[in-house]
Amino acid sequence: MTSGNGTLGHKEVEGKTSNGWTMLVLVVAMYTVSIIMFILGAYYLESHTRNPPLGTILILASTILLSLAIIYNCGFFTLQPNQARVLILFGDYRGTVKKDGFHWTNPFIKKLLVSLRLRNMEGAKLKVNDKMGNPIEIAAVIVWRVVETTQALFDVDNYENYVTVQSESAVRHLASTYAYDHGEQNEITLRSGMDEVSHNLKKELQERLAKAGVTVEEARITHLAYAPEIAQVMLRRQQAEAVIAARQKIVHGAVSMVEMALNELAEKQVVRLDDERKAMMVSNLLVVLCGESEVTPVVNTGA
Fold first, then answer.
1. For residue 159, is pLDDT > 90?
2. Under a CB-based contact definition with an 8 Å cutoff, are residues 181 and 190 in contact?
3. I need a labelling partner for 10 at 20 to 30 A (CA). Which of 108, 128, 254, 289 fits?
4. Pick from 13, 152, 22, 6: which is nearest to 87 by CA?
5. For the segment 76-124, what is each residue's pLDDT rounded down to a tens digit?
6. Interacting residues of 178 by C-beta distance below 8 A, sequence separation 6+
7. Phi and psi at residue 124, in whole multiples of 5°?
8. Cβ distance 139 to 127 under 8 Å?
9. Domain for residue 243, yes or no?
10. Residue 176's domain spans which residues?
11. What is the mean predicted confidence (pLDDT) over 244-249?
12. Residue 204 belongs to a domain with what CATH number?
């Protein structure tokens, strides 16, 4: 079955099979009867009760029955849980069997095994440019499985290779649509928005792989780093930004502490300070609070 364009969109239908154990009893019986008929035919040909016509008929019938038993024997197959067999008779799709157990079908039908189990695909590290043009390394792990066996076998040439190629393409496209860690205000980046990035990766993969009858259960970024040629430069930039952010917090805290000190002195009237002395006190306190090294106090013993 195909879609309207006549090329893609094959749909699964249930394959018809017989119980394997019932057919096994029948095939064993055919082997047994053919052997008995052959022995009887030989007996009638060679014994004192010679009856060549009957012996010839029995041997011919035993040969035909044995040939049928051998042919029927080719129709058996087994299925484990989460496996499927796609049945094809001389190029014509005859259905898909997903029920686990012992089955028998037309011996001339080709039975293609397809695994329906979850599979992990750990992608290689890819070197791409992010949204800002910075070269980065990125890798992802994809958890997927086949849900439509006919699409997997008939709509793409090799569904496992198709998953690999499309997954790599999706990861490359995703990396180019996000900045690594410095975007516009409130913009999601690859580092800060891992959950949303993974969700979008899964969504894009599902759109790409649906044509192959594949569903994506999970997609996660497993490796993310700047490319080696700019890693040291970016590390220094990150360190500088961290120092600046720390300084901003220190200065903000120091100003608050100085303001609190001046207000406390004024309210409790501990000492009266003119503007010049206030400026000197503010300067000294900021040096003490914002300095990187310990400050050595100098005691003024003069007037």
1. yes
2. yes
3. 108
4. 13
5. 999 999 999 999 999 999 999 999 999 999 999 999 999 999 999 998 8
6. 130, 131, 188, 189, 190, 193, 197
7. -75, 160
8. no
9. yes
10. 119-226
11. 66
12. 3.30.479.30
